[in-house]
Structures are given as C-alpha cells and as structure tokens.
C-alpha cells in the first residue's frame, strides 16, 4: 500500500482544510470534521485501500486496517499539518458543547480505564490457558501433559506464576489506570492498589473463609475493629478507591500552598484514602462486587442456553453502539472470582458473534462481482475470523444489511449450543476461531463445535439469501447499491 497516496486521496475526498482533529486506533482513522457536507463519500467507498467508513459519537471513522492505519495517519498529519492528538482528545473535540448521554459517559469511563490494561490481562489470560492445557486431566489422555512429561513441571510452574500475577495484583493495574482517568497521580493510585494487596493482609480470595472460621485478624483503631482483609482480584472496590484518591488529591492541590503541596498532598491523600478503604469503602464495595458477581452467575445459570442465545443475537448490534466497551469490566470481575463463577460467558459469545459476521462476509466475497468489494470482503472475513470485526461489519455487512442479520442469527444459534453445554472461558484472549485457547479444557470441544456452527449458519444463510434475492454489486455500479430481483 502506498500510504502517502492513500493519505492524499483521503484528504481530497474529505475536502480541503476540513479536518479539525485526527487520531487513530488499531484499525481506523478517527476524525472530527469541520463540515461533513464536504465529504465525497462515493470516492471513499470506491477507494481500494479503504475498508469502510462510518460515523460514531460525532467522529468520522475510516477503516484502513491493522498495520497500515498508523502509516496512513502519519502521512495525513504531514499533509494537513494538523496537530497529532490522542483518541481521547478526538472524543473530547467531537462532544464539545454537546449534552452527554450519562450511560455512554459511564461506559466511556470504564473503557478509558480498562482498555489500557487489557494487554496485561490478555497476556496473563493466555498464559493461564496454556497452563490449563499443560495441567488439565483427561485433555490428551487420563494424565495431564505435566504428568506425562515430568521434566516440564517447572516450566508449567513459571507459566502459572506469570499468568497469575496480573489477576492477583489487579488492584495495582486498575489503581494506576483509574486514578489517571479521574485526574489524579496514577503512581499514587498504584501505591494505593499495592496497599490493598499487601502480603500482611488476608488474601482476598480467602476472606470469606477467614471470617467464617474466626481466623480473620483485626486492627483496633479508636475502638473500631477493622478487618485486615486484602483485595486480590477486586475490581469495583479499587475503582471507588481510585476515584476518592483522585478527588482528595485535586482538593489538596487547590488548598495547600505550593511550598508544601509536593510533600503533604500525596501523604494526606494516601492516609485518608487508606483509612476509608479499610473501614468503609472496601468492605461495602466488596459486598456490592460479590452481589454483582453472584447476579451475573445467577443470570447465566437461570437463563442458560436461551439467555446466551439472546445475548449472542444482539452482541454485534451492541458492538455497533459501543456498549461492548463496558464488557471488559464485567469479564474481569467474572474471571477474578473464577472459583465462584467458573469463568466468563461473555468471551464465548463474542467469539461466536465475530465468527458469524466473518462467515457472512465470506459469503459476500463469493457472491459479489465487484473487484474492490471482493478484495475487501476477503480481507475483512479473515480479520473477523481472527477477532477484528470492524472491516466486516462496517465495510460490508451493514451496507447490505442482510449479511449482518445472517451473522446475528448464526451467533444466536451457536450461542444456544454452547449455552447448553455451559462453555465458559477461564482467561481473556482473542474472541475468534482460535479462542479455544482461553476456554476451560473440558469445554474446548464444544467451543470448537460452536464455532463451526456459527461459520456454517452465517455462510449458508447469507449465500442462499444473496443468491436468491439480490443482485450483488454489479461490476459497473456503485458498490453500495443492491437491487431486489
């Protein structure tokens, strides 16, 4: 791809000096435009390097693809001489002066907190999945791999250590990211997270048992008995703690003279937050967190295959709205307390949905006669099968509508199947055809069958409907036009 030429074509199609701010994510250019009426949409749709365009949250987004988008972005910056900004700055520019939806604002906060730490959780999750493969009984025979090959026992032990670290010390990661998001010093947030998982405290996973058998130690402070309970694997408590810490820090910054601010603001923020954490906030939010976890587990166990099928049906529309950005917080909660939940039902659903959309796009690749759209559908279907669905959804399926619906149906059917066999993930990973590495060992076979079902239903329904009812992309027509037979 000639990145410079692509950037020039995009700039020309958007209109001269029409870009207000620009940033990029893993696959898309994310732009705020001065005047959307100047955009030559047809030129963008027909461009071979562009996999699709759409508008979301007042941002004009152009799908380029992983590996190329950063280079096109760099050339676009050089060409237009606009200042490089972050995706957060682009969001702020897009929503400036507009009334914010409180639900979307809350989801954005969760997204801003969890997206930066997802790589650490994915790395730990995949290592955990690898450790499960090495240590699980009856996966490759009556004995585990470690039992069959004792010389790799220590290798499995190191893998388990590396896998457990991000979840055992999760409050440190969240404390850093959340405090930064709330406008505080992220290193103070990390320090508070460290305090919540100190070895001197009863491990968070054993707090309930320690209270039940009477072995929980207590601090006696001014007549108050404060449990020395840790918060390993906690999510909600540390989010609230980070908010309090950042709020206190900003409060003291405004009121303590500059000569003393650097010394006393961190100390006062930490000590006040610390007392609030172990006396009120921590215990209360632990109850709320346990209630949320139990509620999600109850919902899954009660609704079973039907409930999972409904979630599978609407997962892709949820992705379009952006509401799925709140899912990492929920999934992290489920995985952090895996002893009670058994794992996460969200990851398997996401995998079925992504693969279903990819299969529908693959069918369009075979149906279309338009060279540009055939090329786009080919790359987009592979991308979706590997967990990145934006090119497939926005570049192909939504434009035709029926492939998107067929993908939804495929996901629903597959999710009913995996729901019937209680397929759960034990780690975070790629929600795709290779997602089996994150699935509980005894459910891997059912997960793979679910993937096959999603592929078959998505492909066959799209192909049959397209073959019978639509003239797909005539060679000499606009790539967005379809006509009923």
Helix content: 55-70%
Mean pLDDT: 84
Structural class of the helices, strands and pairings? Answer: alpha+beta
Low-pLDDT segments: 473-485
The profile of the biggest β sheet is: 4 strands, antiparallel
> What count of helical segments does DSSP give?
20
What is the end-to-end distance? 37 Å
The coarse overall form would be globular
Provide a brief overview of the structure:
The chain is α+β, with helices and mostly antiparallel strands. It has 20 helices and 8 strands.
Protein architecture, described:
The protein is α+β, with helices and mostly antiparallel strands and 485 residues long. The protein has 20 helices and eight strands. It folds into three domains: 3-99, Gyrase A, domain 2 (2-Layer Sandwich); 113-297, no CATH class; 345-484, no CATH class. The protein has helices at residues 3-14, 41-46, 69-80, 87-95, 102-114, 118-135, 145-148, 153-168, 170-181, 186-196, 207-212, 236-255, 258-321, 327-336, 338-341, 346-367, 371-385, 390-400, 402-420, 444-469, and strands at 19-24, 28-33, 52-56, 59-63, 218-221, 224-227, 470-471, 483-484. The strands form three sheets. The protein has a four-stranded antiparallel β-sheet with strand order 1-2-4-3. The chain has a two-stranded antiparallel sheet with strand order 5-6. α19 (402-420) runs antiparallel to α20. The protein is globular and about 80 Å long.
């Amino acid at each position: 791809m000639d990145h410079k030429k692509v950037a020039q074509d995009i700039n020309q199609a958007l209109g001269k000096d029409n870009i207000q701010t620009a940033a990029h994510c893993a696959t898309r250019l994310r732009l705020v435009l001065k005047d959307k009426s100047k955009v030559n949409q047809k030129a963008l749709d027909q461009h071979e390097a562009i996999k699709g365009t759409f508008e979301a949250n007042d941002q004009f987004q152009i799908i380029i693809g992983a590996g190329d988008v950063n280079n096109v972005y760099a050339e676009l910056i050089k060409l237009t001489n606009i200042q490089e900004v972050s995706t957060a700055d682009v969001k702020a520019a897009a929503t400036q002066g507009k009334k914010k939806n409180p639900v979307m604002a809350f989801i954005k906060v969760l997204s801003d907190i969890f997206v930066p730490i997802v790589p650490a959780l994915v790395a730990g999750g995949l290592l955990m999945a690898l450790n499960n493969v090495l240590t699980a009984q009856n996966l490759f025979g009556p004995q585990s791999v470690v039992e069959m090959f004792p010389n790799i026992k220590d290798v499995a032990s190191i893998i388990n250590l590396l896998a457990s670290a991000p979840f055992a010390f999760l409050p440190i990661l969240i404390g850093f990211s959340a405090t930064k998001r709330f406008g505080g010093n992220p290193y103070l947030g990390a320090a508070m997270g460290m305090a919540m998982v100190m070895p001197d405290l009863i491990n968070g996973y054993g707090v309930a048992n320690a209270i039940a058998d009477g072995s929980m130690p207590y601090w006696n402070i001014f007549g108050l008995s404060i449990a020395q309970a840790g918060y390993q694997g906690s999510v909600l408590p540390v989010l609230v703690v980070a908010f309090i810490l950042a709020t206190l820090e900003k409060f003291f910054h405004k009121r303590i003279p500059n000569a003393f601010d650097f010394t006393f603001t961190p100390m006062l923020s930490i000590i006040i937050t610390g007392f609030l954490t172990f006396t009120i906030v921590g215990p209360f939010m632990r109850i709320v967190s346990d209630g949320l976890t139990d509620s999600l587990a109850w919902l899954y166990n009660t609704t079973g295959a039907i409930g999972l099928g409904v979630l599978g049906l609407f997962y892709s529309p949820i992705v379009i709205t952006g509401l799925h950005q709140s899912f990492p917080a929920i999934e992290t909660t489920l995985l952090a307390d895996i002893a009670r939940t058994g794992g996460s039902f969200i990851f398997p659903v996401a995998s079925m949905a992504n693969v279903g959309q990819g299969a529908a796009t693959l069918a369009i690749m075979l149906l279309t006669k338009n060279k540009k759209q055939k090329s786009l559908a080919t790359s987009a279907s592979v991308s979706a099968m590997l967990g990145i669905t934006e090119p497939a959804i926005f570049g192909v399926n939504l434009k035709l509508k029926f492939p998107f619906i067929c993908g939804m149906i495929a996901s629903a059917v597959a999710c009913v199947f995996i729901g019937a066999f209680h397929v759960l993930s034990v780690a975070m990973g790629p929600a795709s055809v290779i997602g089996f590495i994150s699935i509980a060992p005894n459910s891997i076979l059912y997960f793979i069958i679910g993937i096959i079902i999603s592929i078959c239903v998505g492909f066959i329904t799209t192909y049959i409907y397209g073959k019978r009812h639509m003239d797909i992309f005539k060679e000499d027509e606009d790539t967005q036009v379809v006509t009923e037979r």
